[in-house]
């Protein structure tokens, strides 16, 4: 009886894993609708005559929803699992896209809504999409890592790479099926389609994805906990045992740099008082803020320069950002694991690198910031047409992918895995401030150079000042990363 049921059980497990994998991929590929805003903004300008600050308010509402709810959504995930998060995402996605499309349909074409309540409503609906995004994002990511615990790195990297393709896929759909020849995107029809698509996909995820974890991961003991529980007379003996264990590990491998400094398990208050955390989060906030500004306004940047096909060039830049982001996540993750492994607890309890790292992971943070500092100068110096913007879009995707690929491992190595989600949420909050600052900087600079009666700003003066400041901020972030590189080179 047991032998007869075994093949059936194996077939069921394979079917379950296949369905979960397909649901994770579907959730990931459909989640990035808010990142098609560069395709949407020209249509909003043409139909509703929105100003740059009003466009900034709408896109930043989504950023608020995405970043500000990261910690609460993480707690919902820990308690109820990916299944419930996917169900909530389904409801909010359908509401946000549906109500946004309805509001546009109710607004007569060519009518100015500068003083009407339409803009706050659009901001609220777009903000709800940011909340839905974080529910869907965490749902698919942790469903992947919990379903394939033996291949956690590959599972998380693959799911994030598919998520990175979402703007590329959805922008292709928008251009191919919802943009008439020589016209602008039909946002009403496109968002109606997204309301149905994301609602159905995430609802199916609620039926297929796993529930809460069967058991919690063990929480690492802090030095204070250990000090309270052990007898002071045992200190010498413990030190001797640790030294012998470390010497044994090093003698077996023949390496001197395997042992790493233990991560700091800090409370929320202690973390916020830690100067290294603020140096780290500030460096990320400066670079990510500038990158998010480029991603949000690449459509308006394209329109500020002369070319024959505006819509096609906007779509190409959006797709280039998405493709470079995705390829960076796919390639950099395994590459970083090879040349810069992160420390973990060995079988005998020693916090050590599995093999000697060639470089510290902070080099990827510093390199991304330096690359962006250089590339942000390129449009000022050498770009006078839409077709010449591709290095900016390419670098934006590379920088964004590099930072978010290495961020979780650095957080775990420096401040420990037990509070990794909480710490990621705090870093997300600082990223939101950077995004807000750069987005409004771009909006007000561009608006100040927009001629009366024109819907969009034209010329490099629309973004020249913003890019100068963005380059300076990225260079400052590079300096911060180098300081941390010197402090943490033996830890990560």
UniProtKB/TrEMBL annotation:
Keywords: Membrane, Transmembrane, Transmembrane helix. InterPro entries: MFS, MFS_trans_sf. It is a multi-pass membrane protein. It holds the Pfam family MFS_1. Gene3D superfamilies: MFS general substrate transporter like domains. The keyword Transmembrane applies. It is found in: Membrane. It comes from the Eukaryota. The chain crosses the membrane at residues 15-37, 57-77, 84-102, 122-144, 151-170, 190-209, 362-382, 388-411, 423-445, 465-485. PANTHER family: RIBOSOMAL RNA-PROCESSING PROTEIN 12-LIKE CONSERVED DOMAIN-CONTAINING PROTEIN, UNCHARACTERIZED NODULIN-LIKE PROTEIN. This is MFS general substrate transporter. It comes from Rhodofomes roseus.
């Amino acid at each position: 009886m047991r032998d007869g049921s075994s093949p059936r059980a194996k077939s069921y497990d394979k079917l379950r894993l296949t369905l979960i994998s397909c649901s994770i991929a579907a959730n990931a590929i459909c989640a990035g609708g808010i990142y098609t805003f560069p395709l949407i903004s020209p249509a909003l300008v043409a139909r509703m005559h929105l100003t740059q600050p009003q466009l900034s308010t709408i896109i930043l509402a989504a950023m608020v929803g995405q970043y500000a709810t990261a910690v609460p959504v993480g707690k919902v995930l820990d308690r109820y699992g990916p299944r419930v998060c996917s169900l909530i995402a389904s409801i909010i996605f359908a509401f946000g896209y549906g109500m946004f499309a309805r509001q546009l349909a109710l607004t007569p074409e060519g009518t100015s809504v500068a003083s009407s309540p339409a803009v706050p409503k659009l901001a609220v609906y777009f903000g709800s999409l940011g909340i839905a995004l974080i529910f869907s994002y965490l749902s698919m990511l942790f469903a992947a890592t919990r379903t394939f615990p033996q291949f956690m790195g590959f599972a998380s990297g693959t799911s994030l790479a598919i998520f990175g393709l979402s703007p590329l896929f959805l922008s292709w759909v928008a251009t191919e099926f919802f943009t008439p020849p020589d016209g602008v995107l039909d946002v009403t029809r496109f968002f109606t389609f997204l309301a149905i698509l994301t609602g159905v996909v995430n609802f199916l995820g609620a039926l297929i994805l796993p529930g809460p974890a069967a058991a919690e991961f063990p929480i690492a003991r802090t030095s204070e906990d250990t000090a309270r529980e052990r007898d002071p007379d045992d200190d010498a003996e413990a030190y001797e045992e640790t030294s012998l264990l470390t010497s044994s590990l090093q003698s077996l491998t023949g390496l001197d740099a395997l042992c790493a400094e233990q991560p700091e398990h800090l409370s929320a208050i202690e973390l916020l008082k830690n100067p290294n955390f603020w140096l780290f989060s500030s460096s990320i906030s400066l670079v990510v803020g500038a990158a998010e500004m480029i991603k949000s306004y690449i459509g308006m940047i394209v329109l500020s320069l002369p070319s024959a096909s505006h819509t096609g060039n906007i779509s190409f830049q959006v797709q280039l950002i998405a493709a470079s982001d995705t390829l960076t996540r796919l390639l950099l993750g395994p590459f970083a694991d090879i040349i810069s492994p992160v420390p973990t607890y060995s079988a005998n309890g020693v916090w050590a690198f599995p093999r000697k790292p060639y470089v510290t992971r902070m080099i990827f943070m510093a390199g991304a910031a330096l690359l962006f500092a250089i590339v942000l100068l390129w449009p000022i110096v050498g770009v006078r047409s839409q077709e010449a913007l591709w290095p900016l879009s390419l670098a934006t995707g590379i920088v964004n992918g590099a930072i978010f690929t290495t961020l979780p491992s650095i957080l775990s190595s420096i401040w420990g895995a037990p509070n990794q989600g909480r710490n990621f949420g705090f870093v997300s909050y600082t990223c939101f401030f950077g995004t807000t600052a750069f987005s409004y900087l771009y909006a007000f600079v561009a608006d100040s150079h927009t001629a009366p009666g024109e819907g969009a700003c034209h010329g490099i003066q629309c973004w020249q000042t913003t890019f100068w400041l963005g380059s300076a901020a990225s260079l400052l972030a590079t300096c911060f990363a180098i300081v941390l590189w010197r402090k943490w080179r033996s830890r990560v």
